[in-house]
Amino acid sequence: MLRGSRDYASVAAYQVFLQRLFRHLNAGRQERFVEELSRLQPLPEHRLDSVRRERVRVSPGSLVMIHRNTYSVYSRLIGEMVEARVLPDTVEIWYADRKVEELPRLRDRSKHRIDYRHIIDWLVRKPGAFEHYRYREDLFPTSWFRLAYDALREEHGPKRGAKEYLQMLALAAKRGESIVEDVIRVLLGRRDPLDADAVAHLTEAGAPSALTTVEVAPVSLAVFDELLCGEGAAA
After folding, report:
1. Three-class SS of residue 112?
2. What is the Cα–Cα distance from 207 to 169, expressed in whole angstroms?
C-alpha cells in the first residue's frame, strides 16, 4: 500500500524498505523514547533464546518431522536422536553437540524437502524401494535426469532401469550434478547406449564437450532506426 507494489528484487531490498519506513515513523518519537528509556529496567544477564528446539528421531527412511514438515538428513543418522533448531529462515540439525546440517525452512504444513544426496546411499542398497518411493519426484534434480530414467526404464525394464538410475544419481552426488547432467544430455542427444557405466566412464575426465554450439550474431540497432524513420512509421 505504501509503495504501490509488493514486488521486491530480493529479501535484502525488502529489509531496506522496512528500515527506511521505521526511521520515518520513529523520527517524531525520539523525545518520548528518551523519556521511557530512563525508566527501563536493566537487561537480563543472558540473552533470551528465541530459537525453537525440537528433539526428533531420524526415521528408517532418513527423514525427520519438524514443525509438521518433512526434511531429509544424511542416512548415517538413521535411528539417531537429533536436535532441530528452527530459526526464521533456516532449520539447523544438531547431533552430538555439533551442527551437521542447515536447511531452508519450509513454510505452512505438510510440506517436504528431500535432498537426494542425503538418501542416495540408502537407496542404492535398496533399489526396489525407488519405484514406490513417496517422494520419488524429488529425486529428479533436473528434467534431464527424468529423461534418463524414462529411457532406462524403456530399455532395461523398471527394475534394472531404477538400479541404473540410482547409480547415476550416486555419481551426481559424488562427482557433481552438472557434470553428470552434461553426460546424460550428450548420450541422449547422440542416441548412444545409456547406463551407469557409460556415465561413470565419461565423468572420470570431467564434463564432456557440448553437444551443440549456438552462436548468436550481434543485433544492429540501426534496424530499429530504419523502422521508426521509414514508411512503417508513417503508416
Report:
1. strand
2. 16
- Tens of pLDDT, residue by residue over 92-139, are 999 999 999 999 999 888 999 999 999 999 899 888 889 889 999 999
Residue 221 exposed, middle or buried by CB count within 10 Å (0-12, 13-18, 19+): exposed
Could you give the CA distance from residue 95 to residue 105 in angstroms, rounded to a whole number? Answer: 18
The letter for the amino acid at 17 is F
Task: Please give the C-alpha separations between residue 145 and each of 114, 142, 149, in angstroms, as whole numbers.
Answer: 16, 6, 6
* Residues paired with 126 in a beta bridge: none
Per-residue pLDDT tens over the stretch 91-101: 999 999 999 99
| CA–CA separation, 78 and 126 (whole Å) | 15
Whole-prediction pTM = 0.68
Closest CA to 84 of 62, 56, 105: 56
Q: Distance (Å, rounded) from C-alpha 85 to C-alpha 93?
A: 7
Q: What is the DSSP string of 153-220?
A: HHHH-HHHHHHHHHHHHHHHHHH-HHHHHHHHHHHHHHT----HHHHHHHHTTSSPPPS-----PPPP
